[in-house]
Amino acid sequence: MSVVSTSAPARAPVLAPRVKAALVLFTLFALFPPVVTALDDPFLILIGTRILAYAIAAMALDLILGYGAMVSFGHAAYLGFGTYAVAILSSYGIHDILLQTAAAIALSAVFAFVTGAISLRTRGVYFIMITLAFGQMAFFFFISLSAYGGDDGYGLRQRSTLFGSDVLENEYALYYATLVVLIGLFALSHRIVGSRFGRVLTGIRENATRMEAIGYSPFRYQLTAFVISGCMTSIAGVFLANQAEFVSPAFMSWHRSGELIVMVVLGGIGTLSGAIGGAVAALLLEEFLGKLTEHWRLWFGLFLVLMVLFSPRGITGLIQQIQQGRAR
After folding, report:
1. How crowded is residue 169: how many other Cβ atoms within 10 Å of its Cβ?
2. Domain 17-312 has what CATH class?
3. Which of 62, 247, 296, 304 could be 87's S-S partner, Cβ–Cβ 3.0 to 4.6 Å?
4. DSSP letters for 67-91
């Protein structure tokens, strides 16, 4: 007598829409170098590498802004730590990118811990101002380093090496290395957001008092997220230094912090893939409008205002609105 199983067949795991969006972006990124080769315009690959590096920084900021409701206006300081880790270690003959990245992460972890430990004892505009103050301290500290060009910046004699190889001197190799790191950090961030830690962080964003009442410490969770975000941002700085072969305190100015916030808002706050898309959109608009007029910031600001008015959730929300309209 045969036994017929009545259990439902196993279903293949369904990817979340935001993960699908990230996979689409990563696929387009991977296909970009062949397109550049076909167009015979090597300068485009430099722009692509810059976009990938800023995508890392925007995603790192979204981890605390979108999921922890922490508006850091000094986050560009960690970009600067990454760039100067490359410059300072290179001046001492240490060119390995892994050692430079480790130094950038260590410095950023200490700075983020101190900054977060102080600023997280405040809320709202006070938090914003304290993070801005710490960012400006770092900015003026590096301006004072005359040995590394001060306000004029410092040119790198060579790019970083990887296990003793100068493979990153090749523009395409640097591009794909940045892409691999972006994918890896996205996977890490997605895992963090979906973990118990991420759910608690989101709960603190919604109602910190209630989370504290059921036994969680908002300060500890927010501080940990703040440190993780700062360390991730410093990795972006390492790749920016190699892309530009030049470092400057301008990488860590408050204007740059504002640009990172704009990227997150433009893409959609609280969506890791949206932050990546926001970085792409912001930098492409900058390149396009910059070629049309020297007053490109005016038009970029107008575009941002219209986006916020008609799609408060950014590009991600706009895409969702279009998809819902088609489904009706």
Report:
1. 14
2. mainly alpha
3. 247
4. HH----S-THHHHHHHHHHHHHHHH
